[in-house]
Amino acid sequence: MEVQKTEKTEKSEKETHNKIDDFDNFEIDEDASRCSNGIITSNSYEELDIKIDLHDFDIEYKVFDHILVLFGKRKHHSNTSSPEKGRRYQAFVRPILLSPDMNSDKIVKEVENGITHIKVPKNGTFKKLLVSYN
After folding, report:
1. How many other CB atoms sit within 10 Å of the CB of residue 20?
2. Where are the alpha helices (DSSP H) in 46-133?
3. What is the mean pLDDT of residues 59-64?
4. What's phi and psi for 58, nearest 5 deg?
5. Which residues form the SHSP domain (predicted)?
6. SS3 string of 89-117?
7. Average pLDDT over the chain, rounded to whole?
8. Is 75 helix (H, G, I), strand (E, B) or coil?
9. Over 80: is that where the pLDDT of 32 sits?
10. 20, containing H or E segment
């Protein structure tokens, strides 16, 4: 038994196919990444800049096979005279997959106004293409 496609079915299949093709072509802008617990990433042609806006945290990083892993921890000691003395400890781990064009050997960590920047430079293997129309 052969199923015949109608015009409506073909249009629906084409729309679904276009949505699937567009799935990998999205970008998360800097404003949208603000919802990610104080870690903001911005990607340019020169570098990936990861801004960590967690003032009281000690931030460290390690690279494992093109995965940048961010570690953050904060210790808080209570110095009050209340009967509820104690300590609080907070920590997070956040992996970020690095693309092959990023140079993980030259990562730079900077702290500016309480915001930690981790900058991953790119290899700079971009080619300028000249497109001409005849």
Report:
1. 9
2. none
3. 92
4. -90, 120
5. 49-124
6. EEEEEEEEECCCCECHHHCEEEEECCEEE
7. 74
8. strand
9. no
10. helix 7-23
Rounded Cα gap, residues 86 and 82, in angstroms: 10
How much is the pLDDT for 83?
A: 62
Instruction: Say what percent of the chain tops pLDDT 90.
Output: 13
- Joined together, the tokens standing for residue 31 give 């404003």
Backbone torsions φ then ψ of 89, nearest 5 degrees = -135, 130
CATH topology for 8-78+86-121? Immunoglobulin-like (2.60.40)
* Domain limits, the chain: 8-78+86-121
Strand partners, 71: 60, 93
CB atoms within 10 A of CB 90: 12
Give the lowest-confidence range in 17-26, 32-41, 44-53.
17-26
Helix, strand, coil % in the chain, rounded to nearest 5: 20, 40, 40
Q: What is the value of pTM for the model shown?
A: 0.58
- The predicted model gives 82-91 an average pLDDT of 72
Helix (H, G, I), strand (E, B) or coil at 55: coil
Q: Up-side HSE of residue 38: CA atoms within 13 Å toward CB?
A: 15
